[in-house]
Amino acid sequence: MDKPESEREQGGAFEQAAQRQSAALWRERQARLLELSAQDTLALVSAAPVQRRSADTHFPYRQDSAFFYLSGLREPECILALRRTGSGTESVLFVPPKDAFKERWEGPMLGVEGALETARFDAVLPTEKLNPFLANWLLKAPEVFLDLGRRDSANDNLWQLALHGSTGRGGGGLRRISSLGYHLGVARRVKSASEIEALSRSADIAASAQSAAMRLGRPGIWENELEASLLATYRTRGAEGPAYEPIVGGGVRATFLHYRANNQRIEAGELVLIDAGCELDGYASDITRTFPVSGRFTQPQRDLYTCVLQSQRAAFAACKPGATLEVVHQAAVKVLAQGLIDLGVVKGSLGEVIESGLYRPYYMHQTSHWIGLDVHDPCPYRDEAGEAVKLEPGMVLTIEPGLYFGVDATSPPAFSGIGIRIEDDVLVTAQGCYNLTSAVPSEINAIEAVCSES
Ligand SMILES: [Mn+2]
């Protein structure tokens, strides 16, 4: 917070990022989406709807990831129509025309001319032309890619058009509706150089926010104070904001996987688990650290923490081209299961404990998810034949083992109410993987050192 100017990310906003990239990048993405489809296949993508919060206030506008990936625009109420033709891809953007009254209240609109100037589309038309224009394109379309999950009026209109758009004019017939998310998810799985750069800068900000929160830790601090510190770092450093609602759970609340109230006091001797990340130029980061608010781990906390840290290291070692997320997960599970045996929490051989799932009351989630424009980037985990996707250089995922001991009969008294997770974002490289979020410490000694700074 001391040096906002020098630390501010250059061009932190969506638009500025978009301007830096050439029009070719967006056109290449548009073409890639339709590359393997039939001629005349359409993709119809709508901007995210503006969401009312209460009365006449709204949630902060967040562009739809698919629309942003293909257009680089954060303007609401736009529709992008793409068509695969014999010679390539044709793209038409529909935008709300400029409106002086609206601009007085809300600031400049992109408008038809502004969108044309981006050079990312073959044509730009006002939104009122959408339905008649698409009725024509749909006459010949054998297949339409649509977002199958969104229920809002813009997307519902695209559904209606795709289902019935031309049937009344003799041009209808069976038309396949396919998942835009699936096809785009395949394209989004391997990140480009500019995406990796954005993810790295997002990771840097999230890491410094975690370190700053660690330095604030003291007995009696409130979860909301730590949350406020995270948000202050994100915005001061130029991020759009958090990539998801931060989880700041002290004591037993660290064992609630999606705890979000963040409104309790954290007492001396307790751990606090912070799972938080920001969004920069549209790209997410996602880091979890668990640290003692009193500055020192107790022995039971240290034992469990060491187990989780070793599990994460084993998962890092398994994360390389050709491996799968399941291989990474199993590497993590193996170390956690052995740790639970060594600590006397479960009984049996390692094979038995893994096979029968005896570790699951303490580790009940997966180890990894893709990360990109979305914190849980919706890229398929299996290919069309149902096989697990093999890791390739350029893929980015989280590695986040944990151990959770609720206050109940399944927990040995010494571990009762302790929750620990360590999460980093890693880029798959030719040799293995690179930790994008290593700037925030995860070793016990290093954490205790940061906790004692203030
Ligand atoms: Mn995560």
User: Main β-sheet: number of strands, strand sense, barrel status?
Assistant: 6 strands, mixed
Low-confidence stretches: 1-12
Report how far apart the termini are: 14 Å
Q: Strands of the largest sheet, in order across it? A: 6-5-4-1-7-8
Quickly give the CATH architecture of the largest domain: Alpha-Beta Complex
Number of separate structural domains: 2
Number of helices: 15
Structural class assignment: alpha+beta
Apparent shape: globular
Extended strand count = 19
The CATH superfamily of the largest domain appears as Creatinase/methionine aminopeptidase superfamily
CATH topology of the largest domain: Creatine Amidinohydrolase
Mean pLDDT: 93
Q: Which class of the largest domain in CATH terms?
A: Alpha Beta
Bound molecules: manganese (II) ion
- Cα Rg: 24 Å
Query: What amount of the residues lies in strands?
Result: 15-25%
Give the fraction of residues assigned to helices.
25-40%
Summed up:
The protein is built from 15 helices and 19 strands. With 454 residues, the chain is an alpha+beta fold.
Description:
The protein has 454 residues and is α+β, with helices and mostly antiparallel strands. The protein has two domains: 184 residues, Creatine Amidinohydrolase, Chain A, domain 1, CATH 3.40.350.10; 263 residues, Alpha-Beta Complex (Creatine Amidinohydrolase). It has 15 helices and 19 strands. The chain has a six-stranded mixed sheet, sandwiched between helices. The longest helix has 24 residues. The chain binds manganese (II) ion. Manganese (II) ion binds next to loops.
